[in-house]
Design brief:
The complex is a heterodimer of chains A (363) and B (408). Chain A has 363 residues and is mainly alpha-helical. Chain A has 13 helices and no strands. Helices cover 55% and strands 0% of the residues of chain A. By secondary structure, chain B is an all-alpha fold. Classes of the chains: A mainly alpha (363), B mainly alpha (408).
């Protein structure tokens, strides 16, 4: 019946000469059709053809899905980010505890004078330089935070940042603890030793954590945490992340240059302020950059993970890396999106919807 | 080889017998080559052939066709007879014709056909001794620079009395053992000798040697920097540092020479200068020789790997036990050595990582260009094959030889 109806259409069409869409002939019921072929329905012929077209499409599913590298290859997995955050937080607290412990062991300035340092021989101390460092550090952290908020894959990137930061602080705990360097300069006033006063020590830990370890906030009174420099770590790490996860066009290069300048100035000012030995800064830079490059090369080269000649998996933290990055199959693209996703009715769907096809699907 | 067209009756008869078609010899005894070639199915319908044929002559006609084709092919060959002619046309058709290499009766002869198999292109590892020489020069420069820097730093080490040894966790737990440093140096020398022997036995010694020199040189270069910028005090009161030579260049030169000649070892009496603590050169050598030995030795010599590891670990432990270095020196040395070694070898073994790309951060190191120069022509991971240092043939010890094929 339906097939004949279509044929009837064509017959009736004679004088119009409009083009016919040949639709697959299949059984379907058309409510308005009558056996005698007279058009008793009110709908124009084109609508009927469209309807038929839609239904045919729906039934045959003639369209094919073109997959783009989308969320399935870069799953968010916020819980992993949470774990990395806890790891970083734990290491931060442990560092603070360790600084408090090491403070007890720092030899007195009179007993153990500052060690000879090449940089200090050439450049005398400038008092306000350390504030410059800390201000730079705070600016960089704020910039990075804002940039991170606007990244599309912030879960993955955040995870990486927390993990690397935690690792670097862990290594710092080890190096601080095993050998204690004397104070770099006679100007440093270390907080007095509290030999067995655990209460006092805990208060110190809390004070340090709340102030972020910065002398601007007045929480940096403890000595002994010289090898290696935590300030250098933060400056270098935030700069590397800012540079890596932002576009590489010309305008953005200015931004990178600016951040690089902030970072470099901050590091040099640490030395100018005689707050750390040169070797502390050099080792901190080396470890930070190498760890960053190592991690990101491993993460971005999927082929490397399965290769037998991959020596990168001989590090002790390789299993943590696999846990965090197992489902990240491609390099994270540099895309930005609004931090909060409003419900979609609020805005127009940016993707142009091909209503004919979509609504046919939705029926 | 005669063409069929010039065969005589005898030859035709012989051929028929060879083909197992003796029944036709009688009927065709007066046919020569051209007559044979001109046989058609009609001939088989008439006598005398019709009387002897059982299939209407089909088989014989096919064989004649084949003969035509064979000869056609033979003619077009470049004068090279790969196979053996069925018939020897020199006249002694009888015996010689039958005497064939494989002794097949019916004239089916085996022609070994040459099938050229393109050999899978085995990766080539050009020795390029020139590059190894450059790496050696680089390593030597770094050694000399290190010695000069030690000599310079020695002048700046604060005296023990003014700057006592720094607090160190290991020293708190373990008291000093006097002879421990000798053990460390002996272990180091054993490892070095074993490594040199292993290197000389490697087939690709130029490539591996180049890598060793480059990595050692870079590690000592880094060491120069860390030693120079901040000077740590002596780790123990037992140290007897030689006196300072303020500005006396000649004696400083002589001191440098003495140290180079003795290899920087205390055993040889060449190392009585202080100040070279961060980071420990002894740890670097122990760890690096162990890493190289493990990397380039066959996997199944597990006892060898374990004994080298034991030598290395004991050596490092003894450095600390002798209170000759701070713990931080040893830890940093171990870290830098292993990371550099793994970094270099991962880059060297993956072709994809040798090129700069957005995802390849390994190329951001300052020594990347030097690395490319050294490793440009090394296509894949260097196989662990060994050979006698001064002989012609390579002896593949790890490799079963298929003698029947190999001896051809």
């Amino acid at each position: 019946m339906a097939a004949s109806h279509l044929l009837d259409d064509r017959e009736d069409d004679g004088p119009n000469g409009s083009c016919q869409v040949m639709v697959m002939m299949e059984e379907r019921t058309h409510p308005q059709a009558t056996p005698c072929g007279n058009q008793v329905d009110d709908k124009p012929k084109s609508t009927k053809r469209l309807q038929g077209f839609r239904k045919a499409l729906r039934k045959n599913q003639d369209y094919s899905r073109i997959s783009k590298p989308s969320s399935s290859q870069l799953p968010s997995e916020w819980w992993k980010t949470g774990i990395a955050f806890i790891w970083a937080g734990f290491n931060l607290v442990l560092t603070t505890v360790m600084i408090t412990v090491v403070n007890e062991r720092v030899p007195d300035k009179s007993v153990s004078p500052p060690l000879p340092d090449k940089f200090f021989d050439y450049i005398p101390r400038v008092e306000w330089a350390f504030s410059v460092t800390e201000v730079n550090g705070m600016i960089l952290v704020a910039l990075w935070f804002v940039q991170w908020l606007f990244l599309k894959h912030r879960a993955i990137v955040g995870r990486r940042f927390f993990f690397l930061q935690g690792m670097l602080y862990l290594y710092r705990i080890v190096t601080m603890y095993i050998t204690t360097l004397p104070v770099p300069s006679m100007h440093m006033d270390c907080a007095p030793k509290l030999y067995n006063d655990s209460h006092g020590k805990i208060k110190r830990v809390l004070q340090l954590v709340s102030g972020g370890g910065l002398s601007i906030t007045g929480s940096h009174l403890l000595c002994g945490d010289f090898l290696y420099s935590g300030h250098t770590v933060m400056l270098t790490l935030t700069f590397l992340f800012i540079q890596e996860y932002s576009p590489r066009s010309c305008k953005w290069r200015c931004y990178h240059g600016f951040c690089g300048l902030l970072s470099a100035t901050g590091v040099v000012c640490i030395l100018v302020a005689h707050e750390h030995y040169s070797v502390d800064v050099v080792v901190a830079y080396f470890i930070t950059s190498r760890l960053f490059y190592w991690y990101h090369t491993m993460a971005n080269n999927q082929a490397l993970r399965d290769s037998p000649h991959n020596y990168l998996n001989r590090t002790w933290w390789n299993w943590v890396f696999n846990f965090l990055e197992k489902n990240v199959k491609t390099p994270v693209p540099c895309t930005f999106s609004w931090p909060l996703s409003l419900p979609y009715v609020c805005f127009k769907n940016p993707c142009k919807s091909y209503s004919m096809v979509q609504s046919a699907r939705d029926e | 080889m005669n063409k069929v067209a010039s065969w005589s009756e005898e030859e035709v008869s012989l051929w028929l017998t060879d083909q197992g078609l003796q029944e036709y010899s009688e009927a065709l005894r007066n046919s020569n080559g051209p007559a044979l070639l001109s046989l058609t199915t009609d001939d088989f319908k008439r006598s005398p052939l019709s009387r002897v044929t059982s299939d209407g002559g089909c088989l014989l006609l096919e064989k004649i066709e084949t003969l035509k084709i064979e000869h056609h092919i033979d003619i077009h060959k470049n004068g090279h007879a790969n196979g053996h002619m069925v018939l020897n046309h020199d006249g002694n058709a009888g015996s010689a014709g039958k005497a064939q290499h494989n002794g097949m009766v019916n004239g089916f002869h085996k022609e070994p056909v040459q099938i050229p198999i393109p050999e899978p292109a085995s990766p080539q590892f050009p020795p390029e001794w020139g590059k190894t020489g450059v790496a050696l020069v680089y390593a030597l420069c770094c050694f000399v620079l290190t010695t000069v820097i030690i000599s310079v730093v020695h002048e700046r080490v604060p005296p023990k009395e003014a700057s006592p040894p720094l607090p160190d966790k290991f020293f708190d737990f373990f008291d000093r053992v006097e002879w421990a440093f000798t053990i460390c140096e002996i272990n180091g020398m054993i490892l070095m000798v074993l490594w040199i022997i292993q290197l000389s036995l490697l087939k690709h010694k130029s490539i591996v040697g180049r890598r060793f020199f480059f990595i050692v040189g870079t590690l000592y270069l880094y060491r120069c920097i860390t030693m120079y910028i901040t000077t740590l005090p002596v780790p123990g009161m037992h140290f007897r540092c030689s006196p300072k030579l303020y500005g006396d260049w000649e004696s400083q030169m002589r001191r440098v020479m003495k140290m180079i000649a003795g290899g920087g070892l205390t055993i040889t009496g060449s190392h009585n200068m202080c100040g070279d603590y961060l980071y420990s050169g002894h740890t670097v050598m122990l760890t690096l020789t162990y890493l190289f030995m493990k990397e380039y030795a066959p996997r199944r010599f597990w006892w060898y790997h374990w004994s080298c590891w034991a030598l290395c670990a004991v050596g490092v432990f003894c450095i600390l036990l002798a209170h000759d270095h701070y713990t931080i020196d040893v830890v940093v040395a171990y870290f830098i050595t292993t990371r550099l070694f793994w970094w270099y070898h991962t880059m060297a073994n993956q072709q994809a990582l040798k090129e700069t790309s957005q995802t390849n951060f390994f190329t951001h190191v300052w020594w990347y260009r030097f690395f490319r120069y050294l490793e440009n022509n090394v296509p894949t991971a260097v196989p662990r094959s060994y050979q006698k240092p001064f002989s012609w043939q390579s002896l593949h010890w790890g490799h079963v030889k298929y003698t029947r094929i190999d001896s051809d």
